[in-house]
Write a structure and sequence with these properties.
The complex is a heterodimer of chains A (about 625) and B (about 170). In chain A, α24 links the parallel β14 and β15. Chain A has 27 helices and 16 strands. Chain A folds into 3 domains: about 160 residues, Substrate Binding Domain Of Dnak, Chain:A, Domain 2 (Up-down Bundle); about 150 residues, Rossmann fold (3-Layer(aba) Sandwich), CATH 3.40.50; about 230 residues, 3-Layer(aba) Sandwich (Rossmann fold), CATH 3.40.50.2030. Chain B is globular and about 55 Å long. Chain B has 2 domains: about 110 residues, Alpha-Beta Plaits, CATH 3.30.70; about 55 residues, Alpha-Beta Plaits. By secondary structure, chain B is α+β, with helices and mostly antiparallel strands. A two-stranded antiparallel sheet of chain B has the order 1-8. A two-stranded antiparallel ribbon of chain B has the order 2-3. Chain B has a two-stranded antiparallel ribbon with strand order 4-5. The mean pLDDT of chain B is about 95. Classes of the chains: A alpha/beta (about 625), B alpha+beta (about 170). At the A-B interface, α3 of A face α1 and α2 of B.
Chain lengths: ~625, ~170
């Protein structure tokens, strides 16, 4: 395969060759031009927090040991990490806040949004202690919105309600003892910025505890909140079959790609793309083909069955097909290069968020009340642009794979209840207890150009399922695994260990699939890591143990974003061994590295970070961990 | 013959060359493993700046044709290698008397952990491809033919002259 040193995805390899032919620069070229990357930055030992700097510490001890202010390597690394995690947390909390704002609009009459999932609304209300008896959707929705907004307006020292309402009790107590229960999400992010400014906290341990607190803000004011509210608005996902990879684009269709992270706009794009199909046909197209990238793609996939175009690292390559008429972006992980790449083809990039503008792209300012108008406008512009496509520059890879997605906790429990309606978790737990399922690993997070595209996700997961470890997945990891054909019943036949295969076949047949469940269950977008948390919570609750005692682990094999660090920090706080396949920027401090990956984190939380850059070794490490947890449980 | 040459006006003092030199002289030749193992490899380049902080210069052995360090060496450890044109130290002969350190006009010789003289060998063992020059993000440090370096300086002079910036 061409470009096999850069990617394992044949479609991406083919488009990279086209990029080279078309002389279009991609992320791989820019990474090459950045070599070698700064060692001080890689180790996290440079500081630009005040104008006496920039300062850097000599990792080999010959030069400066302290920054101008007196900060040593431990402090600089700890401060930088807290800022990174706060950055990731801010992104998720802002996303969740937008979802709550949408719910506040949906409960008003005659607005573009409605509540689609009353069951979920009642479930969320119940968690918040709100009685739904005799209340209509609007009234109940209002109470949920008010309860959530109260967290953002919490000026007391009481912990965040959404956390205490949704996190395991045992964890809340652990976090309370450490003094890291967040109060008001916005206040905690503000405090992290304050704490890391010049002349503030100089205690690396205290800074790490604040970092964990950010992880909790991320999880409960970001991930859980976003998932729950989005389910209320757009429906809780149920299993859906579709396809993945650039081969889903069609030469004779208007191709519109949704990219970013929030479903708020993309749900409307999907709605209007379906409604305006006739206009596309009038322009000579056979219809409108939607496809998704990154987590907006995952949201549209989980609820609407929109196929996956590709994942983070290949976002430019989608445009290089020459067949994308419109790429609509909302927030996060939008490469600034997109408009430059698009300028080499006919593709139009539409930015929509007031905080994501790309010079060279067309900005269609999206607002909730004008959602229908703006979505129509964008879809029409996409249809219009179909006529400008230069056929001589179109090359759509054939590559696409079948995939199953839509495995919300509700959907998984639904499938299991076909085996045991009274105790749906029992078959799963029994099969973990008897060793048919050795344990479970959640693979999540991004692509990172430092890793051969998709290779870590795929190699790690194949090794895990071969060893009877069930894999759940979200984000760009899920898209990598989908493109590799691992989200299919056939993958169970082909790659799963014998005992895992037997269990998945039994569940799949009982659920009426007439085939095994896939060995890798796609649980959604990155904010939907909350679903993995909820599943673990349910399993731990059923077994009467803490999450930290379960034979499970987490992995972000190719992480790049600050958001991944925030999610990972929460995973550790939840008690999970959390594998990172790319070295984070902390090695310049032996102390910080030691705390995060060693005894200290494990004794406080039951979880810790585990850095291993080789996928097979990482699989081995995760399997060893699962076995040790099984042993401790006596199973 | 290529030399390590510096366009001082491009040096931003980032010390990337120093780190790269340390790493290439560490056991695993890898930044992360060197830091994690607590090794303290001796670097052979060091970025110095002028007293008024107006100029930075990464300094390493200039590979003199008539090296004072070689003349001063009493054991014959320090020698001029005719085949490469490099001034090299035979560590097994070096007794650590530091005469070379005293006579070097550039301060380019330091002490290794084994108490022998340690100096730049232009990464001879790394295919004679100096790590410092590869690491320089602004291409201030270059491993180039003198004629090539000259030519670019001449061209830059000419353009400044034509712009009336040179008297």
């Amino acid at each position: 395969m061409v470009n096999s040193n850069k990617t394992i995805d044949p479609a991406a390899g083919q488009m990279l060759a086209k990029a080279q032919k078309d002389q279009v620069e991609t992320v791989w070229d820019r990474f090459e031009a950045q070599q070698p990357q700064c060692g001080f930055g890689l180790l996290g030992i440079c500081c630009r927090h005040c104008n006496q700097g920039p300062c850097r510490i000599d990792p080999f001890g010959e030069g400066a040991k302290y920054g101008v202010c007196g900060a040593d390597a431990d402090l600089i690394v700890a401060r930088n990490l807290l800022r990174q995690v706060a950055g990731g947390t801010a992104a998720h909390v802002d996303h969740a806040y937008a979802a709550v704002e949408t719910l506040a609009v949906a409960i008003e009459e005659n607005t573009p949004y409605i509540i689609k999932d009353r069951t979920k609304l009642k479930a969320v209300a119940a968690k918040l202690g709100i009685d739904s008896e005799g209340k209509g959707d609007a009234a109940l929705g209002r109470e949920v919105v008010d309860a959530v907004f109260a967290d953002f307006g919490n000026h007391s020292s009481k912990p965040m309600k959404y956390l205490t309402a949704t996190a395991p009790k045992e964890r809340v107590e652990t976090w309370q003892k450490l003094g890291i229960l967040p109060r008001n999400p916005d206040r905690e992010i503000r405090e992290a910025m304050h704490q890391t400014s010049m002349g503030m906290d100089a205690d690396p341990v205290n800074l790490i505890l604040s970092t964990v607190k950010q992880g909790l803000v991320d999880a409960y004011a970001g991930l859980h909140l976003a998932t729950d509210i989005q389910d209320i608005l757009f429906g809780t996902p149920s299993p859906v079959a579709t396809e993945a990879n650039l081969g889903v684009l069609k030469e004779d269709h208007v191709n519109i790609i949704v990219h970013g992270h929030e479903p708020i706009l993309s749900e409307k794009i999907v709605e209007w793309a379906r409604k305006l199909e006739g206009e596309a046909r009038a322009k000579g197209a056979k219809g409108i083909q939607l496809a998704g990238i990154c987590c907006t793609g995952n949201e549209a996939l989980m609820r609407q069955g929109v196929p996956v175009a590709t994942n983070f690292l290949a976002q430019e390559l989608a445009i290089i097909t020459g067949a994308v008429d419109a790429m609509v972006v909302d927030v996060q992980c939008i490469m600034p290069s997109l408009s430059r790449v698009a300028s080499c083809y006919h593709t139009k990039i539409f930015t929509t968020s007031p905080i994501v503008k790309l010079p060279g792209a067309e900005h269609v300012g999206f607002t909730l009340l004008e959602a229908d108008d703006k979505a129509q406008k964008i879809v029409r512009k996409g249809i219009e642009n179909f006529g400008h496509r230069d056929k001589s520059r179109v090359e759509i890879p054939q590559e696409k794979t079948k995939m199953l997605a839509g495995f919300s906790v509700e959907a998984i429990v639904g499938a299991l209840s076909k085996l045991d309606p009274d105790n749906p978790l029992k078959p799963l737990v029994d099969n973990i207890a008897n060793g048919n399922i050795l344990g479970a690993v959640g693979t999540v997070g991004c692509n990172n150009v430092k890793v051969k595209h998709d290779s870590f996700h795929v190699t790690l997961v194949k090794e895990l399922i071969k060893n009877n470890v069930l894999v759940v997945t979200t984000g760009c990891s899920a898209q990598a695994l989908a493109k590799a054909g691992l989200l299919t019943p056939e993958a169970t036949e082909k790659y799963a260990g014998d005992s895992l295969k037997a269990v998945l076949s039994a569940v799949g047949n009982a659920a009426g699939l007439n085939a095994p469940l896939p060995p890798v269950l796609h649980m959604g977008s990155c904010v939907d890591n909350s679903r993995i948390g909820d599943l673990l919570n349910a399993l731990a609750g059923y077994l009467g143990v803490a999450i930290k005692d379960l034979p499970v682990a987490a992995s972000a094999p190719e992480h790049q974003h600050e958001k991944a660090l925030a999610i990972g920090t929460w995973a550790v706080a939840l008690g999970l061994l959390t594998h990172l396949g790319v070295v984070p920027q902390v090695l310049g401090s032996a102390k910080v590295t030691g705390i995060l990956t060693g005894e200290t984190a494990e004794s406080l939380f039951g979880g810790k970070f585990y850095v291993e850059t080789d996928p097979l070794q990482a699989a081995q490490g995760l399997i060893e961990h699962i076995k040790s947890k099984r042993k401790a449980l006596g199973i | 013959m290529k030399q390590i040459l510096v366009r001082t006006e491009r040096c931003v003092g980032c010390k990337s060359c120093e780190l790269a030199c340390s790493v290439v002289h560490s056991a695993g030749k890898n930044l992360f493993s060197a830091v994690l193992s607590g090794e303290q490899p001796v670097r052979r380049v060091s970025v110095e700046n002028s007293a008024d902080r107006s100029a930075n210069l990464p300094i390493q052995c200039r590979q003199c044709r008539e090296p004072r360090c070689v003349s001063a060496c009493m054991t014959g450890a320090m020698h001029l290698d005719e085949s490469t044109g490099l001034v090299l130290n035979r560590e097994e002969k070096c007794v650590g008397c530091w005469m070379c350190v005293m006579v070097c006009p550039y301060g380019a010789i330091s002490a290794s952990a084994e108490k022998t003289a340690s100096k730049c060998d232009q990464c001879l063992s790394e295919d004679h491809d100096p790590a410092c020059a590869k690491a320089c993000p602004t291409k201030a440090l270059k491993f180039v033919e003198i004629s090539e370096f000259n030519k670019s300086v001449k061209r830059e002079f000419l353009s400044r002259f034509l712009m009336g910036e040179e008297a």
